[in-house]
Write a structure and sequence with these properties.
Structural class: mainly alpha
Distance between the termini: 109 Å
Number of helices: 6
Order of helices and strands: HHHHHEEEEH
Radius of gyration: 34 Å
Strand content: 5-15%
Number of strands: 4
């Protein structure tokens, strides 16, 4: 009977090690929760008689971070001191909360936690094309006074005193090069 249970424990250890090795962290779910799941797998491996070093588990979690977390993972890899799984989970929690705070509030969140930005388009029947609402241009919010074409004619030159041009275009300026 003891032989039978030793074999099943070996199979369970192999299965749990495979789950730890093949674990992939999904960016759509909580990173901290998934890191805890990897810690549980490491704890189960340890209970089966094959304890993994704490540093190994932490590096394994860092290696499994999604592509959107690559800059954070690189920062953790380049630190000079060793990081424990506890410190890693705390750092992941802080980073996850900061990313949630910085995420755009204009996105629509679906039931499964995935977010998407929405661009509204309307179909123009006359042209047969999709057009963005407001033609993709911002609304005009300020009305600046437009210069009249004849306003230049009313200005007086400060150099020669004649109307029709300004000082920078005056031919009587002393510092203007003769062309």
């Amino acid at each position: 009977m003891e032989c039978k249970f030793v074999v099943s424990e070996a199979g369970r250890l192999l299965y749990t090690c495979e789950n730890f090795y093949d674990y992939s962290i999904d960016a759509a779910k909580s990173i901290v929760t998934q890191a805890h799941e990897m810690q549980l797998l490491a704890g189960e491996i340890a209970s089966l008689g094959c304890a993994l070093p704490d540093r190994f588990v932490a590096v394994g979690i860092i290696a499994k971070l999604p592509a959107t977390w690559r800059d954070f993972a690189t920062t953790l890899k380049h630190k000079r001191e060793d990081i424990s799984t506890e410190d890693l989970v705390i750092a992941l929690d802080v980073e996850e909360k900061a990313r949630a705070k910085d995420s755009p509030s204009t996105s629509v969140v679906a039931e499964n936690g995935v977010s998407a930005n929405i661009v509204e388009k309307k179909f123009n029947k006359n042209k047969g094309k999709m057009q963005m609402q407001n033609s993709g241009k911002p609304k005009k919010t300020t009305n600046f006074k437009k210069k009249k074409k004849n306003e230049k004619d009313n200005k007086t030159c400060y150099v020669c005193g004649k109307k029709g041009h300004v000082a920078k275009n005056c031919r009587h300026r002393k510092n203007k090069d003769n062309e």
